[in-house]
Amino acid sequence: MRFTSEQRLDDGVIEREFTLGEIPGTLWTPGSAAPTPLILMAHNNGLPKAEPRLVARARYTAACGYAVATIDAAGCGVRPRSAADEQARADLRRAMQTGEPVDEIFESLVGPLVDKAAPEWRTTLDALLALPEIGGPVGYSGWTALGIRLAAVDPRIAAAGFFAGGYVPLAQREEARQVTIPLLLLLQWDDEGNPRQRALDLFDAFGSKEKTLHANLGGHLGTPWFEVEDGDRFFGRHLK
Amino acid sequence: MRFTSEQRLDDGVIEREFTLGEIPGTLWTPGSAAPTPLILMAHNNGLPKAEPRLVARARYTAACGYAVATIDAAGCGVRPRSAADEQARADLRRAMQTGEPVDEIFESLVGPLVDKAAPEWRTTLDALLALPEIGGPVGYSGWTALGIRLAAVDPRIAAAGFFAGGYVPLAQREEARQVTIPLLLLLQWDDEGNPRQRALDLFDAFGSKEKTLHANLGGHLGTPWFEVEDGDRFFGRHLK
């Protein structure tokens, strides 16, 4: 893990860019010296790690006393996309505009993305936990499909907050039953791209004994800011 | 309004019993002198206002800086029950045990209870707002059916937190569309007595632009304590 830049933000949070092999990442840590819990923050596969809403969430969360890390995993963010991925994304956009069924296209795009991204997130987690300023435990926040895979296969993940969850590949819908850590599933009631009933079915499917659903009125981008604060309180109960 | 007893609790909260005509009530106020927002806290029609879980919620909420009031409205708690109500409650218990349909029995019991309780809650609100230690605005917390009626007809109610919402009389399911204040609907995912889909349909029906759903795994009595804290934060956004 090689740090390539560092800046100290107004609230004392330190924001560092890093690379780990081909993986570009960003790490936010609170100013304090003590080892802190870590939150892996991943968002929807199509967006870069520098996307402003993710950065705002990450900075807020770090200021609350967590190390927060994100990467552009293989095929995500600024990483090169395969011709097949580009084609699938174009097909998906067209199908969503015309109202055609999107399940198969979605599966062909996101299923392989999760398979490729998960090992890179775990490699990143190995490197992060070797840093003296990061202790544990580890939480996960964001992209539902990736988070299900990580929570199902990596026992270091102690609690997770997932967003949306309407379209989740078949493999992850199955893996959801193997997820037993405390969960907070956050969804938008009128999310254009995520069918509500599927998100509710997914919530039902998780194996966790302690799981909470939050839903707010509005579309995919309408999540109110207080949900970021609620997320911090959720992680506070399980990681601190 | 006549206060009949007063005690100061460990956290400075003052707990007073009162009567208002035939209505017995309890008022909790924080120790501070400044006029505070008010929360009307009503619970499910069958339970008395002295029920320990309600008292614990009320004391916590008062310590957060609110006046909190509850009453046993007509037919509720310790108030006399009509022979028809007693019969309906017996029928309801039997039907729930044997798995027979409960809709009609429920409607015949709870519909009239809401009709009788709502005016008493409004009379109580008049008297409470005349006290110098209570300012405003006013929130409502608890029993869904009564809260829908109050929020639909009384413009003084500025925000409301409802619990359960599976069985709500027909009249209130209609009135839900007229409710436009900020809402937090809290439900238990496996509530034995409140069908999940109906609670979700009710959430969908509310006219409010700002509404949030919280659901937790478990049965009717399994709500985790952090939801009381979340409720306080919800009211903090709208009443303070």
From TrEMBL, chains A, B:
The keyword Hydrolase applies. InterPro entries: AB_hydrolase_fold. Keywords: Hydrolase. GO terms for molecular function: hydrolase activity. This is Alpha/beta hydrolase.
